[in-house]
Inverse folding.
């Protein structure tokens, strides 16, 4: 009887130890899970900064302009991984030309793909109106079409670094011209939360 009780106690201690070890392992895995919440109902707020080289082929010649693109953005996940959003852009331009600037408001969608516990990729489409001005030459309306592609690196479940590439097609109205703008050195911070 005594041997049976010792064996039962030994088995009970082993089972308790295994259960405790499993619970500790599960808690450690949960602590290490820093996947972003990209599910329906999640809201996103953040912003980006990019250095832009703008090639303009209007009037039969090409030139390069250098810009700093500052763009706060907001979004809402309507279904898992699909975000609808809006972005405001302020883009001062400098170089060998008179000072120029852009104010624009874009709307669109981005689809997110989780590729690893801390990483997600996205691709999307943004479109919207804007105004562009050049010192001493007035302003013109414009319409932008942008294809954003990027990678999110989760710092925790709610904040991620945003590294990406943007391909912009810009249609100016007066004088009429079409340009391609490709930002480089693009970096942002995005936050994800529920209300």
């Amino acid at each position: 009887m005594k041997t049976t009780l010792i064996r039962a106690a030994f088995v009970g201690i082993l089972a308790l130890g295994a259960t405790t070890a499993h619970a500790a392992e599960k808690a450690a895995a949960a602590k290490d899970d820093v996947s972003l919440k990209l599910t329906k109902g999640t809201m996103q707020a953040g912003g980006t900064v990019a250095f832009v080289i703008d090639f303009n082929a209007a009037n039969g010649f090409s030139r390069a302009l250098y810009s700093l693109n500052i763009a706060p953005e907001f979004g809402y996940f309507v279904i898992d991984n699909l975000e609808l959003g809006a972005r405001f852009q302020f883009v001062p331009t400098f170089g060998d030309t008179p000072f120029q600037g852009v104010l624009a408001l874009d709307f669109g969608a981005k689809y997110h793909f989780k590729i690893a516990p801390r990483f997600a990729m996205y691709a999307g489409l943004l479109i919207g109106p804007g105004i562009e001005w050049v010192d001493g030459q007035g302003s013109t309306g414009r319409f932008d079409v942008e294809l954003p592609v990027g990678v999110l690196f989760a710092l925790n479940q709610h904040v991620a670094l945003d590294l990406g590439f943007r391909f912009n097609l810009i249609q100016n109205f007066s004088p009429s011209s079409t340009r391609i703008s490709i930002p480089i050195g693009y970096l942002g911070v995005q936050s994800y939360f529920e209300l």
